[in-house]
Amino acid sequence: MFDDLPPDLERLLTLRVWHAMWLERIDRKIAAVQQRQAAEERARRLRPAPPDWVAAFGIGAGREPAEVHAGGCHMTGPRWRAVDRDEARRLLSSGVRACGHCQPDVQLHILDLAVTAAV
């Protein structure tokens, strides 16, 4: 039989204490990771849904809408305001640029803007 443990009681007890300390460290780490994951899950569930449409603004006082985005677009930037479908359509038809990534003009079925911009 293969037995690589020490034969004396003193070293066996030392190994037992050492392994118990490691198990305690591992258990604390597991608890911390579980707590962090539970907090992330709670935050994910409580996070509000992105708006359907977004107007992005330029810099400065009295700034005007510079671009229209779909709500989940990653190109929105830091200065934006949620707008409803009608306002997004109004902004796009009044000449505010549509985002080239999320293409809100296509999603809102405003196809004549793409043709006008290409001409």
Please tag this protein with its features.
119 residues, alpha+beta, 2 domains, 14% strand, rod-shaped, plasmid, DUF6233
Low-confidence stretches: 114-119
Structural class: alpha+beta
> How many domains comprise the coordinates?
2
Q: What is the string of SSEs from the N terminus onward?
A: HEEEHEHH
The biggest sheet, with number of strands, parallel, antiparallel or mixed sense and barrel status, is: 4 strands, mixed
Outline, from the CA principal axes?
rod-shaped
How confident is the prediction overall: mean pLDDT?
Answer: 89
The separation of the N and C termini measures 87 Å
Question: Which range does the strand content fall in?
Answer: 5-15%
Order of strands, main sheet, comes to 3-1-2-4
Number of helices: 4
Radius of gyration: 30 Å
Helix % is: 40-55%
The count of DSSP E runs of length 2 or more, i.e. the number of strands, is 4
InterPro entries: DUF6233
Keywords: Plasmid
Pfam family, one: DUF6233
